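User: Fold this; tokens only.

Assistant: Input:
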Amino acid sequence: MTSTTTSHELTATSLLRFATAGSVDDGKSTLVGRLLHDSKSVLADQLEAVEHASRRRGQDAPDLALLTDGLRAEREQGITIDVAYRYFATTRRRFILADTPGHVQYTRNMVTGASTAELAVVLVDARNGVVEQTRRHAAVAALLRVPHVVLAVNKMDLVGYAEPVFAAIAAEFTSYAASLGIAEVTAIPLSALAGDNVVVPSAHMDWYPGPTLLEHLETVPVGTDPSLEPARFPVQYVIRPQTAEHPDYRGYAGQLASGVLRTGDAVTVLPSGHTTTVAGIDVLGSETDIAWAPQSVTVRLTDDIDVSRGDLIAAGPTPVPVKDVEATVCHLNERPLRPGDKVLLKHTTRTVRALVKDISYRIDIDTLEQRTDAPELNVNDIGRAVLRTAEPLALDAYADNRRTGSFLLIDPADGTTLTAGMAGEAFGGLLTTPAAQEEDWF
């Protein structure tokens, strides 16, 4: 049994992953609550619980921020301190929303929430305009190569719905975003508390001709055409049933990270460099002649070569396996990251031993300056690290491939995640591969 897929089916998508970020008291939780409420994505018992909690606080109307501030500490403090994932849908699209913290000490949480997002909503209080945290959030979105950025200028009701206020904020933010390499920003004036331009068009801002926030989320182009990307297939598991029915079957199971694989395609197995062709592709027990990201499939190869978990089957331009890795990293752990630290590096399905050779600099996210005054990275710091791995890795530049250009550093003692890494230069540039040194680091 074989199946074919049209170009439209390859590129079509009905799911948008997006993240929200804003400074404290910008109204981010209220915006998310309004979005869920007005799009009819709140269950009756949830709304009843929010109304009850609001009455206990002496509020006349439901505090929609409580729909997202789920942790007890968040409700008591009235702030968001963790990444809260919300799932909702309209008739046009399904959504996974990562509601991320605004405080500077929770930069790591925003990195976590935005790392898989295809769109970031950066919230600004119309009374305050672009502030330090706004620039920080824009910088993180640029660093993580989030494809689409929305500037939501909130609390327009508190500035009399004045168009010049919105225009000035939009111009300042767009200019700063352009300096970070963000090519396009969609600016939307709104009031989360009153519901203006969140789901329903505002009657107070007839000067704004654009879409509401939900309309934009429903119509923004999502995903890329897998046929335009090089194929990357990290091997998760080797299948060898060795049964009477399948005595010679050998397949490699995993999830296609990017691109398209077809039967007959020439591929390279990395890091060994062996070349072969795709003999067949199996999906849910049935044979097919094509697979595309992010499908989970089993790939069979023509030649009987050594392939194991952690290897990368690649088609098209292939990365050169390296042991010396230079990357932009965000440190996520309370324990500092220092030169000389021995860690585990997890890249797709491959985990290898690694040594932190150098912390080149720390990036001041507010000014984008490279600070060399600290020889270590503390929690929430973003900087430049040089690593030496015990085995070669087939890393793409993060700017080219978010899946195969990213990795994690793990504490070998207890398995704790220490650092998130992005191969290549921050805010642009290509993956660098310094000449290997034959020192025995391990």
